[in-house]
């Protein structure tokens, strides 16, 4: 092998080895899109933690900050979401519902003294100001010639 060929082959060899070992040394791969039929996630012990395939996600435990779902099912049966607890004892709930019903009923009008004044309507057009007549002025000569001249 000539020296010229070595300058071409050896850099390509090291480039190929570096590319092959990059994800093994860094323990990560970055990609914009992954296309596969099934994705298997293993935990630290090497056991399967989750499987994602065309049928959905299969896992023993799922932790999420927010779940936005149209419906819930368990074993193929639809579930209704549990009602959130309000934190009030059960004896107070009928009383609170009664107050809500009373709040929805129309309340009597307050007396005139307590009513706030209604804003007045403004006229459609403001009145036009009248021109001010300065009157005869002796100190300022008129630029117009006298009428008789």
Key features of this structure:
single chain; 149 residues; alpha+beta; three-stranded antiparallel β-sheet; two-stranded antiparallel sheet; 2 helices; 5 strands; 14% strand; flat
Overall pLDDT confidence: 75
Instruction: Please report which band the strand proportion falls in: under 5%, 5-15%, 15-25%, 25-35%, 35-45% or over 45%.
Output: 5-15%
Shape: flat
Derived structural class: alpha+beta
Strand order of the largest sheet: 1-2-3
The amount of helix comes to: 10-25%
Q: What quaternary form is this?
A: single chain
Q: State the separation between the terminal residues, measured CA to CA.
A: 121 Å
List unreliable stretches of 5+ residues: none
**Could you describe the largest sheet, including whether it forms a barrel?**
3 strands, antiparallel
- Rounded to an integer in angstroms, the radius of gyration calculated over CA atoms is 43 Å
Count of β-strands: 5
Order of helices and strands: HEEEEEH
Q: Count every helix, treating DSSP H or I runs of 4 or more residues as helices.
A: 2
Q: Gist?
A:
It contains two helices and five strands.
Written overview of the protein:
The protein is an alpha+beta fold. It has helices spanning 3-26, 92-104, and strands spanning 38-42, 48-53, 56-59, 72-74, 77-79. Strands 1-2-3 form a three-stranded antiparallel beta sheet, with no helix packed on it. A two-stranded antiparallel sheet has the order 4-5. It is flat. It starts with a helix and ends in a 45-residue tail after the last helix. The relative contact order is 0.03.
């Amino acid at each position: 092998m000539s020296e010229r060929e070595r300058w071409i082959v050896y850099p390509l060899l090291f480039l190929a080895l570096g590319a092959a070992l990059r994800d093994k040394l860094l323990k990560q791969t970055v990609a914009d899109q992954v296309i596969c039929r099934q994705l298997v996630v293993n935990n630290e012990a090497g056991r399967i933690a989750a499987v994602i395939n065309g049928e959905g996600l299969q896992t023993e435990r799922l932790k999420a900050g927010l779940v936005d779902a149209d419906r819930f099912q368990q074993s193929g049966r639809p579930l209704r979401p549990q009602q959130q607890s309000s934190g009030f004892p059960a004896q107070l709930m009928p009383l609170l519902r009664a107050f809500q019903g009373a709040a929805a009923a129309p309340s009597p009008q307050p007396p005139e003294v307590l009513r706030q004044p209604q804003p007045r309507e403004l006229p459609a057009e403001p009145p036009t100001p009248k021109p001010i007549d300065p009157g005869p002025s002796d100190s300022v000569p008129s630029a117009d010639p006298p009428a008789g001249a």
